[in-house]
Structures
1.
Amino acid sequence: MMQIKFATSNLDISRCFPVMVQLRSHLTEAEFVNRVQRQQQAGYFLVYVEKNNSIKAVAGCRLMETLIDGQLLYIDDLITDTSERSQGYGSALIDWLIEYAKSQGCVSLQLDSGVQRAAAHRFYFRKGLTISSFRFKRSLQ
């Protein structure tokens, strides 16, 4: 049976790493755990899909408020294990996040996605997300 849970302990966070590193390949497990712990202090949270004691998909999110949109759920990170794609785990996770956002009084769910992630974009469109803006970035290092 598939379950969706919050990763609250260091063990939970570490268990999410093998899936998350598929999206954030620059991180080591120790750095991942440290960053999640630091960001949790500012409202970041990890949610994961588990089936048969195996993590299938992970999302890193935060509740926030902006002048343009009001209260929203922002998804920083969303990944399904590459060996588990097209089995409904990512869909179940984003559906859960939508319901969670509604329960928290959010008026929208938002995320950014790299321009190279065409398969992810098709998934987001199927889940009812639309492109609402461009994000511009300038490296400072």
Note: The radius of gyration is 15 Å.
2.
Amino acid sequence: MARPTKALINISALQHNYRLAQTLSGAGQAMPIIKANAYGHGAVLVARALSKLAPAFGVACIEEALELRQAGIKQPILLLEGCFTADEIAVAVEHNFWLMIDNQLQLDSILTCNIATPVTVWLKVDTGMHRLGFDADEVESVYRQACSSNNVAEDIIVATHFACADDLSSEATVEQIAVFNSATANITAAKSLANSPGLLGWPEARAEWNRSGFMLYGNSPFSQPQVNGDQLKPVMSLQSAIISLRTVDSGESVGYAASWTAQRQSRVATIAIGYGDGYPRKAPSGTPVYINGQRVPLIGRVSMDMITVDVTDLAEVAIGDTVELWGEHISANEVAGFADTIGYEVMTRMPLRVPRIGVE
């Protein structure tokens, strides 16, 4: 018998979301981004589920890419932060990893290394986020340097990243697209602008390569309804079970620091999940969980391995009943909102002790 906490990964929903990304890409291609353990969903599980659909995958670093190779994933894998040290280049060539280049040091390391096979590179352009990338006015020169090297494969891709694409009312994305188009006007290489919000909400950002990350996992990056984001299906159902039931009188407190006090005689259920499982510690009393077809409120502080909820208004409740923390009935975005964070964080912070189980 095992602890009941688990994350069910809906393979059909994942594939539905990827097919939506493909459709929105038009004549371009959608690259699943599966960094940070596929946003907490299990990188190997997700890559295998998409291996017959996706032309390539994107991860943050070479360690994440090697995990996929060791699991038998054959597609090219883009290292979104490139190489951190020059000795990684030979490994990248050996395993058909593509390299993002965002500064002259990374480019020089490739130009001067001793490799038998040229490597595919993506040139990152800083169009306004000011985090990574070459300045827009130096991109043509950098592109020419890359093209002139026998160490660089012919199929160079030029890319950028959006700072505010999840805000459909912001002019920042319009400005970034304009900067990118101007900077690359004389470059014939394939382009990549769109992340998930760019792909879903900014048609003019769709290009030859589109990087679908957060959207793959069924959560919209937008804070308001959006025609494409609303078609996404949740992939993860974070579940546990009730492990204890008790009645507390009015005036009695529950949990650490006695932060919640009953205003009536209350039925309290203890659930086997806590911040040690990735459930946000900052989730306050009132955050919803789903039990037996009904939302009920979290009460008291989230502890490492347990939470408590008020089930007084449930007609039927028993030890062993399944609890959904987020998934089909409550979105990760909604829970994140109660905890003053974002859906990206609550999913990616889930530790390995929570088993990911693929289901159809």
Note: The longest strand covers residues 236-248.
